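Hey, resending since the last one bounced:
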Amino acid sequence: MDKAAVILRFENVTFGYDKENPILKEASFSVREDAKMTVMGQNGAGKSTIFKLVTGALTADKGQIHMRQGATVGIATQVVPPERKEDTVSEFFAHAFPEKMYDLDRRIADALEIVNLQTKYDKKIKDFSGGQQARLLLAYAIIQEPDILLLDEPTNNLDTAGIEHLTGFLMCYQKTVLVISHDADFLNSFTEGVLHLDVYSGKVDRYEGNYFNVVEEIAARVERDRAKNAQLLKEIQDRKDKINFFAHKGGKMRALAAKLRDQVADAEENMVEVKRDDRTIRDFTIPAQEFIEPVVMITSVKVIKNHEPHRAEVEIKLRKRQRLFISGPNGIGKSTLLRSLAEEADEGAVIAKGVKVGYYRQDFSGLDFDQTVYKSLESVMDVPDNEALRSAAAQFLLTGDLLLNKVGSLSEGQKGLLCFARFVLQKPGLLILDEPTNHINFRHLPVIAEALEQYVGTMIVVSHVPDFVSKIAFTDWLDLGTL
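The structure tokens again:
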């Protein structure tokens, strides 16, 4: 790679939140100016950590991070920081600049046009839907016009129109873009290479080519390395058998045994470290609470159009084994409906008394971030059971020290897997799922979809991922956009 064109370079970077178990181990890679790269790896491999190292929010334990002199960095994080939720739109964007910008309103208007969002500037961030907040986060990064644009799961909560708008912008963006995403089709539309984080080795490998081709290349490399090692192991074992035979002979036979030992040592040195595939969660089942009566009654919903709410009458009754899919564009009130239902805050949407509710919030605000992972799992069990808890946790790759860590220290993907582990232990009669694919590694999604398809309780789902939704048979549909 032409060094003059390099805008970012990691040189033998080591970093760990726990210094005894670093996430990155002497990781090295470089990114050229104007490149559009995917950052890929298993949940917890350190993708968001790399972004924090680039922005300076974290400092490497060892190694160096080189950036072109004067290069600016803008980041669109996965969620709005809690301390910014009370900001108005104007106040939110003002934080993007180190000094007062006298043309801030114009800059906001330009950035919001790029993300296809119209709003009043005095509206508070907390009053926007999840999808609208995702657009605001994108606009926050874009408004800075950075030389390096970092996007962390930018399609989460975005509807189809939002994703198409973002894709078009990124294809035309004339500067460097690094993207963390589990949306394969989105990535393949504009990225030209992959930085692959290996959760086992802590190393980073750089691949050129479109996303789908790189995924195939990684899989092919794994198979080649396995085949090479299998052949070497066969040769090593064959020579060891001969060594055992000749070593007990005299004269030339003993000399031959010594030569074979040298060959075995050479073969063992030539063994390659096989790049292991990202682990995928095992098949699982969410047990359902037994409940005979109707579980959910929805007689009216609040719909928001042109920033104005109005009531719409509906008639939905859900029993065991029935599933409702709620659709509509960002900002129309889907998450608000789910939240008011779960919190029993709306007379028009009621859950029957005694029903245990498993609620997947798109921002994980239902989790206590100060609890340990172990306590978070234990808190949903009717009767604490250490063996059952650890077994469920292991199904979702939450093992060892992770159980002792606080929930807030988990990656967003691990928080998502924690939610599903909690459902397994909770045995809910009703699942309320608000964008359940958010932050989850795409390898896990078919397993989760199959578990939801097999779930025999009542289920209500909001999702903007058609491929995921198509794997689940729904009995009822509610399109808020038509009300």
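Residues 222 and 277 are 7 Å apart (CA to CA).

Sorry for the duplicate.
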